[in-house]
Design goal:
AAA+_ATPase; three-stranded antiparallel beta sheet; ATP hydrolysis activity; alpha/beta; single chain; 227 residues; six-stranded mixed beta sheet; globular; P-loop_NTPase; 6 helices; 25% strand; nucleotide-binding; Rossmann fold; binds adenosine-5'-triphosphate
Length: 227
Amino acid sequence: MAPAPCLHLQEGSRFGYRVGLPWNRRPHCLVEIPDPVQAHPGLHLLVAPNGSGKTTFLRTLAGLIPPLAGAVTLQAQVHYFADELRADPEMKPLTFFRSWFKGDSLASVEKLANSLRLDLKCPIGKLSRGNRQKVLLIMAEVKAAQSSASLLLMDEPLTGLDAETREQVTQLWAETRSSTVRLVVMHELECVRQADSLFTIVRGKLRHATERTGSTWMDTYHTLQQS
Ligand SMILES: Nc1ncnc2c1ncn2[C@@H]1O[C@H](COP(=O)(O)OP(=O)(O)OP(=O)(O)O)[C@@H](O)[C@H]1O
């Protein structure tokens, strides 16, 4: 059996970007890791103010940007989902999914699309923002289910979704908590009832709470931000 997926961040790691001309690149740190971090299968939320470095953090975990210092160790198959679907606007979601999946996986796509009320035959360019987001969400779920050790990195996946769909999606995440490490950037915590931890960025440092400090994760977020 494959080992359970896990994300490990080394203490002292620094995430950000480099500025300047190629022969004089200077690091600009956005997120520093003051304590070692481990994330195991479950739903992990990343909530922090605009511009604090969430996307940069996620892209570094995905291997798209090198860390400025330290290391990211992933014992998992990593899938990164940006905040917007980038695909040919003429293409239908069904064609898009057929290029990725077949057999049982394609059947799962159709089942999920049906339950989320996504028209698989409407060209992507004609779908509303929320419906385009459903394409990404379905992609993420079916990809994660294909491996027993998946790490899903999702950047604001609930943006544009109506209240009912948000409920459905967060319920689905709760049901798959035991098999997938899911790190989700979001701003609206009201729809999340069950989560395993919350990450935030306070004055350029990553903070991680594995227990709620109040009755909701929003309370925990405010506590961390004020610490
Ligand atoms: N390669 C780069 N060169 C210059 N600036 C950058 C680069 N990458 C990120 N930044 C800046 O770093 C800051 C943090 O960006 P990032 O997108 O990671 O924040 P965020 O927390 O995801 O923001 P939001 O909540 O608004 O999506 C922004 O001001 C952004 O413009």
